[in-house]
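Researcher: I'm preparing a figure for a lab meeting and need a structural model of a single chain. I don't have an experimental structure, so a prediction will have to do for now. The sequence is pasted below. Please return the structure as tokens so I can convert it later.
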Amino acid sequence: MEARTISESATSLSQIIMPSQTNPAGTAHGGELLKMMDNCAGAVATKHSRSIIVTAAIDGINFHAPVFMGNLANCSAHLTYVSNSSMEIAVSIDAEDMILGTRQCCITAYFTFVALGENMVPVKVPRLKLENAMEEEEYEAGRLRSISRKENPQVCWLSLY
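Model: Understood. Here is the structure written out token by token.
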């Protein structure tokens, strides 16, 4: 399996935030934006693995600023780290006020996807071919986050109410 570059699978999506996607304050629902991020990250994972993929985890979600109705939400995603069957993807959304011509970073997160083969069994994904020092730094940071996730597994719980 030949290694692939980060740029080969990097993906971006944009959409205008409409009234049906907002709350009474006129800002986009967080769930709407997370769905957009999941779609964008999923495209990256599929392009890299050329497999069926599933979302395994979302870490480090940070809402930095609101996305307002009428803004163009620009979602960008790229791989940071891959292991045997999992892929970590950095995803961000910035909001563009198309009238004023301004852009602001609004949300960042790391999504982990697993590639699946027949019978929904995890399959090996291509290694990353790192092309510069920044990609090497991101890869190492992603490797450390992966170790942390494995050392601190999250458990599922049922609501008490």
